[in-house]
């Protein structure tokens, strides 16, 4: 009954709710939606994403080559370095689904998280360190380039990081299901603005800020518009 009475308000509420999510939850929620789609819907969405991604193809080409090159990825092993973590995030975003060898290199790097925390005293509650690790393991545990077993291991690591953050006083991002309870219903909501929301402190765009400077490769911002939010995973305009 509610959805029939005010579908526009429901839709605008979802847009606003999604735009305010931190990046790990955005990734998790989008992957969950894709799992619910039928094959023809997936093919249609694939065509839309292909068109959007084509606009940044040339500017991201060099970064994409490095992201799928096991030799380049092999140098990104120091998880205590913020620059390295940012480069790993770029690599996961640009990693092709068929590049199993490159995914294996990333898997070996990420599964050293236990020794990094225990031996180097990495504090997940300092600055945005914990948020970066949440995003890293959320992206990796959902990435098709990793095997089923690898994704299971990465998911366990993600759960451990969330527990560590909770125990040190910094609550990790709440689950998508819990956050969904805050959907605006038929209450009065402000119509969705076409300008991107830049106030999300844990957006992938902000997390990648260090990498875009250190790699001396600028990841361009997409022009504002209705398609900019659809491509928000790789950076909003």
Please tell me about this protein's structure.
InterPro entries: PHAT_Smg/ZCCHC2-like, Vts1_dom, ZCCHC14. Pfam families: PHAT_SMAUG (PF26034), Vts1 (PF25479). Residues 60-164 form the SMAUG/ZCCHC2-like PHAT domain. Residues 213-237 are annotated as: Disordered. By secondary structure, the protein is an all-alpha fold. Helix 3 (23-36) runs parallel beside helix 10, helix 7 (82-94) packs parallel to helix 10 (129-142) and helix 10 runs antiparallel to helix 11. The protein contains 15 helices and no strands. It starts with a helix and ends in a 7-residue tail after the last helix. It is globular, with a radius of gyration of 18 Å.
Question: In short, what is this structure?
Answer:
The protein has 237 residues and is mainly α. The protein is built from 15 helices and no strands. Residues 173-203 and 215-237 have low confidence and may be disordered.
């Amino acid at each position: 009954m509610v959805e029939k009475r005010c579908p526009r308000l429901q839709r605008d509420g979802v847009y606003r709710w999604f735009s305010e999510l931190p990046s790990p939850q955005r990734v998790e929620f989008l992957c969950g939606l894709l799992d619910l789609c039928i094959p023809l819907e997936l093919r249609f969405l694939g065509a839309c994403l292909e068109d959007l991604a084509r606009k940044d193809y040339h500017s991201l080409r060099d970064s994409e080559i490095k992201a799928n090159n096991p030799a380049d990825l092999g140098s990104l092993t120091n998880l205590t370095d913020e620059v390295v973590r940012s480069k790993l995030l770029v690599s996961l975003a640009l990693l092709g689904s068929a590049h199993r060898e490159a995914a294996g290199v990333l898997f070996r790097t990420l599964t050293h998280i236990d020794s990094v925390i225990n031996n180097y005293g990495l504090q997940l509650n300092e600055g945005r360190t914990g948020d970066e690790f949440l995003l890293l393991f959320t992206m990796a545990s959902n990435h098709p380039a990793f095997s089923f077993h690898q994704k299971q291991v990465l998911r366990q690591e993600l759960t451990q990081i969330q527990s560590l953050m909770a125990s040190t006083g910094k609550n990790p991002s709440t689950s998508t299901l819990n956050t969904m309870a805050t959907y605006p219903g038929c209450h009065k909501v402000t119509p969705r603005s076409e300008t991107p929301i830049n106030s999300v402190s844990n957006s992938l765009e902000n997390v990648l800020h260090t990498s875009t400077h250190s790699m001396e490769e600028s990841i361009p911002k997409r022009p504002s518009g209705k398609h900019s939010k659809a491509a928000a995973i790789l950076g909003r305009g």
